[in-house]
């Protein structure tokens, strides 16, 4: 456990000790064994049937889910006293990363083990869990989560589905249509949100067999074709009153807490998918020849491989740093307490900003990865005979579901600023210090003997810059800043890059002494490339934010701060990229 448990968003104003973060190098033998079991399951049970799954022969998906149940992969989050394994979030995320190489099957798995199961675990009564949980965690039944409607996507609380109590008081009668329901075609249990008396947003556990539940046709999708996505139509669907999940009118808690969990798990899944896509791109680059040379020998291709390797390293570092934050926080909660799950979900909600960051950064990394892998393939990447084409199509949904990346950016910066205005984070006081730093020339010498000091200095400078811009925004707009979405998006982009860059640097600082000289060189190269790329993105966002918030002399002053605080000495960048690329090309996979 970390020496200090940080608050959500606090990474922006405090310096973290590298020993206080969790990294992939901290996995136990048990965790590595679970990861290996998951990899073998995908290789032996899913990959051989991938074509049938892509053709929507869902018998293979259902069979795969049952085999997952036999291996214990569906019960990692379930309480031990109810037949589960109750493993930590790091393990859960590791399994999500490894299962991601199964393509469309991983979508069914993620929906089932995440938003399909966790609402029952966290909010279900003892009777509800006794009736349904064993079926769900063994794979006897598949589950689904029904929140989105044709007229309400990001505005989840704008749902129009209704629930009216029957005259005899034994059932609720549900009417409405749910849209884009993953596992809709074969799920046996649905968590469905509807408004009691058309105003009290509430969750219900609905069996497929209940009268009035109709499964719509499969959507014709761009990607993840092997996953089931349907409408669920509620036509006077009769749901027993004992199947209300949680409290009437409190469905928003279930919906949003489930999405927080879905976001950090998605971060792990897309990281695994990025590793797989990168390996495919490198293999092809080693096979393909042009001008009598392997294309992997060309600098233009090597730069792509280097940039992707560094980005995936940052993505992986971020994901497992977040896992450590969550596990450290959850370990402080007394098991067996009457309000255990209430405290548990508050613990997860504490890191809602970081969950949003994980979702955005990691899905953006996967998007960049598959795009470059198609580019490395050239014309062949546009042909379905090559897996690069499927990777490209399958990736696109990750920036949409679990809350679009735009919504997650707004939530990330919005939640941080909201906590600051409530006094939960001393952002305003730190902003004043940042403004003082802006107006005070710095003559401090950098101690080159400190590992990664250039990167650490850059991170600290970007934090100062975030505080300057957010402070200027709050001063100008006060509580109306929440309506200035363009400014919030720019602030989020800076915060996202800070968290990712810092995660990469802290991980490197923690592990570098344990590595061979060659591996140390590769690690330093990854940190340099990741820091350079992240700083460029943050600098662009900061400059844009400055023009949006200020004008005149104040703008001029902030722009000078942008130039000052986004300086990063990336001397040796070309050699760093070549070091990374050559190492990855040699082993034909992600190297960390």
Verbal overview:
This protein has helices at 29-46, 50-54, 58-71, 89-99, 104-113, 118-123, 126-138, 251-287, 299-330, 340-350, 352-377, 387-395, 405-421, 427-439, 453-477, 485-511, 517-549, 552-565, 573-587, and strands spanning 143-146, 162-165, 171-182, 189-196, 200-207, 213-218, 229-240, 244-245, 289-290, 293-294. It has three domains: 10-141, Acyl-CoA dehydrogenase/oxidase, N-terminal domain (Butyryl-Coa Dehydrogenase, subunit A, domain 1, Orthogonal Bundle), CATH 1.10.540.10; 145-245, Butyryl-CoA Dehydrogenase, subunit A, domain 2, CATH 2.40.110.10; 406-587, Up-down Bundle (Butyryl-CoA Dehydrogenase, subunit A, domain 3). With 592 residues, it is of the alpha+beta class. Strands 1, 2, 3, 4, 5, 6, 7 and 8 form an eight-stranded mixed β-sheet that branches. Strands 9-10 form a two-stranded antiparallel ribbon. The mean pLDDT is 95.
Brief digest:
57% of the residues lie in helices and 10% in strands.
The parts where pLDDT drops under 50 for at least 5 residues are: none
* CATH fold descriptor of the largest domain: Butyryl-CoA Dehydrogenase, subunit A, domain 3
Q: What overall geometry do the principal axes of the alpha carbons give?
A: globular
Radius of gyration (CA) equals 24 Å
Structural class: alpha+beta
Corresponding CATH superfamily of the largest domain: Butyryl-CoA Dehydrogenase, subunit A, domain 3
Instruction: Please give the count of helices.
Output: 19
In N-to-C order, the SSE pattern is HHHHHHHEEEEEEEEHEEHHHHHHHHHHH
- For this structure, what is the CATH class of the largest domain? Mainly Alpha
